[in-house]
Amino acid sequence: MRPHQVRGALGAMYAGLALTVLTTIAPYADRATTHLLADHIRAGYPTYSPARIDSAATTYLVLLSVIGALGALAWTVTARAVGSGKRWARPAATGMLLLGICFGLTGLLVKDTSGATGLPPALGWAGMLPALAGVVAVALLWRRPRLT
């Protein structure tokens, strides 16, 4: 790979890392302010007590935090591999992108027992943002050098 391809891909990867961190923090900000997640759970399960809604929201926070931490680790390891020119970096980045897209789509589309999606749409779409950076990074990593 050419150095400008590596720099561009690394820039996209670090942007993806930042988006992953922001996406991981978003449910905590929601819990402190807008309560989208709790309201979404309440709408799907109107008979739940406030304590049960809080418990379900906490469970989502833990799950999303673990996924976010694993995502941040994946970005960091893959970016280091790309930066040091490891042969396995491009396939690993592609695999991580596919995993990230799967996790993002799961949060966005999977319905729970109430028939609604598990996450409110705003948090589901936020979970897809890091995948955009991943698409850019992988495209740059696999781009063929121009013949001059």
Describe, in plain words, how this protein is organized in 3D:
With 148 residues, the chain is mostly helical. It contains six helices and no strands. The protein has helices spanning 3-32, 36-44, 50-83, 89-109, 121-126, 129-142. The longest helix has 34 residues, at 50-83. The mean pLDDT is 94.
Q: What proportion of the residues is helical, as a percent range?
A: over 70%
Number of strands: 0
> What's the gyration radius in Å?
18 Å
Main β-sheet, in a few words?
Answer: none
Instruction: Report the structural category.
Output: mainly alpha
Query: Count of helical segments?
Result: 6
Secondary structure blueprint with pairings:
Blueprint: H1 3-32, H2 36-44, H3 50-83, H4 89-109, H5 121-126, H6 129-142
Helix pairs in contact: 1-3, 1-6, 2-3, 3-4, 4-6
Features:
single chain; 148 residues; mainly alpha; 6 helices; 77% helix
What's a quick, concise take on this entry?
With 148 residues, this protein is mostly helical.
